[in-house]
Amino acid sequence: EEEEEEEEEEGSGVRVTPALLKATTGEFSLESILLLRLRGRGIAHLGCLADCSNLEWLDLSGNAIAGLAPLAALRALAVLNLAANRVASVEPLRGCRSLRQLNLAGNRLRSLRQLRCLQGLRHLESLRLRDPRGGLANPLCAAPAYRAALAAMLPGLKAIDGQRVAGRGSELFRLCRELDAALDGEDAPAAAVPAEPPQPWVRAGFWEARPARRSAVLEEATRQLGQALRECRELGRRADDSIAQAQRALGRRQHGDFGF
């Protein structure tokens, strides 16, 4: 039933085509596209998106997307926003090996079992299934303990729905809950647990400068800037020559006038 529903929805909306992508990005080659924003375009079918093999950042929020099959080919994709769509299965995202941030708020995911395919994404750090500010959620968010279950299923996550799940931040959250429980008259822990020494809330090397990441867009922009500078220097040289010639000609003319 879900497959039939996806086919009906995909057939009634906008399809991603090479012409659409080139008009949006200004790129002549789909492989050159690194960043793509297609928010709120009425898109129902991802079409040729698989041809954007070097895509790293993709925003598809606010569309009518149900099927994600073309995304399976995007090995370099690191950030994906699918908020406010009609996604009921994320199985194709298994192929997005570089994925770090994923926003699925406001879709049709009904069970955590549908997210098991994300367990192989070793770089996934942030997952959003609910966005209170935008009034977006998934049916599975109705379960009161879905965040804890999700954290257990995907232990590499550092943030769920925008909230930290590891490090000092989560410890502070736990202490606040225990304090609230004590003030409300609930039972306190039976035995006091010795306080652990404070730990840094970021991993070692977090503040160290990272090597610059190569980017085809940056390299092309640098090349074009260098060419423009060379052209400017050449034009300046020609202008100086023209001015010098004009000054010499003017000097000869003035000298001739003095002779009359």
Automatic annotation (TrEMBL):
Query: Which domain of life does the protein's organism represent?
Result: Eukaryota
Q: Does the keyword field hold Membrane?
A: no
GO terms (BP aspect): outer dynein arm assembly
Q: Kindly indicate where the leader peptide sits in this chain.
A: none
Q: Does the keyword Isomerase apply?
A: no
Q: Which SUPFAM superfamilies match?
A: L domain-like
Name of protein: LRC61 protein
What keywords does the record list, in alphabetical order? Leucine-rich repeat, Repeat
Q: Report one GO cellular component.
A: cytoplasm
Organism of derivation:
Pheucticus melanocephalus (Black-headed grosbeak)
Q: Which InterPro entries match?
A: Leu-rich_rpt, LRR_dom_sf
